[in-house]
Amino acid sequence: MRIHDSTGKFLGYQADIEEAEFVIIPFPYEFTTTFGKGTGRGPLKVLEVSDYLETYEEETGEEPYLRGIHTYEPVIADEFKGEEDIEKVGEIYLPLIEKRKKIITIGGEHSISYPIIKAFIKYYGNIGVIHFDAHGDYRNTYEGSPYNHACVMRRVADTGVKIVSAGIRAISKEEIDFVRASNSIKLFFAHEIHSDQRWIQKSLEFLPEKVYITIDVDALDPSLIRATGTPEPGGFEWYSFLTILKKIFQAKEVIGVDVVEICPDPPYEVSTYTVAKLIYKIIAYWK
């Protein structure tokens, strides 16, 4: 039996960073959220509730934490107002990327994905990005900022990498026009995924060998994750989403993952607990 004593560490355990296979990075950044607020509180709450997860992973029959999980100190950043701010985040990530750590970032708003992905591009060069989200996030600017959470995938697209956006069910005309004019982006609406299971194979064939996964938790249906800034009905269900993740990890070399936009919803922490469980599933699948 485990004694539950929240330590701000994933699962309540801490491996030495040099020996750890996985590094969890809390990134409680929140400057541009629009509808629901609270993503800045998300990472530490996920860490807190993760202490209640069982360490035995029933699908793989393993205890993945034994491979070593180190929870990094929270990344504290000022509001992104220029590329110099983006580069500062990269300076934090690059030493860990160079050590080939399996990095999972917990956000915070979705804006954080752009500087993180830029750091991975700087090290690896040619990578692909798999983007799970209810929203397109391809606006060029929003509320006067090109670094708004609604612009994150537009900034990633500016780097020239190939992107697959999946589960989208809310997007503007400006965004869809941009996506359709691009040869580097494949976007799959949620209703298309529901009716055509071949989308995942098409995605894997489109992307290069090395991929980064960014998961906005509103990609999942609000019946699973209601505690997020802008929930949209019609999202991924639990086991279908896990099946998709397993296929990606089996087919590609995943180089990094982020899970963003969880807004803690006390006293009902089902959503936050589900995110912690999702992260542990990712650790189990990431061999």
Written description of the protein model:
The protein is α/β, with parallel strands linked by helices. It is built from nine helices and eight strands. The protein is globular. The protein starts with 21 loop residues before the first strand and ends with a helix. The mean pLDDT is 93.
Question: Summarize this, please?
Answer:
The chain is α/β, with parallel strands linked by helices and 287 residues long.
So how many helices?
9
CATH superfamily: Ureohydrolase domain
Q: What structural class results from the helix and strand content?
A: alpha/beta
Beta-strand percent range: 15-25%
The order of strands across the largest sheet is 2-1-3-8-7-4-5-6
CATH topology: Arginase, Chain A
- Tally the beta strands: 8
Q: Report how far the terminal alpha carbons are from each other.
A: 27 Å
Listing every helix as H and every strand as E from the N terminus to the C terminus, the arrangement reads: EHEHEHEHEHEHHEHEH
Largest sheet: 8 strands, parallel
Shape: globular
Number of structurally distinct domains:
1
Which CATH architecture would you pick? 3-Layer(aba) Sandwich
| Mean of residue pLDDT values | 93
Query: Helicity range of the residues?
Result: 25-40%
CATH class: Alpha Beta
Low-confidence stretches: none
Radius of gyration: 17 Å
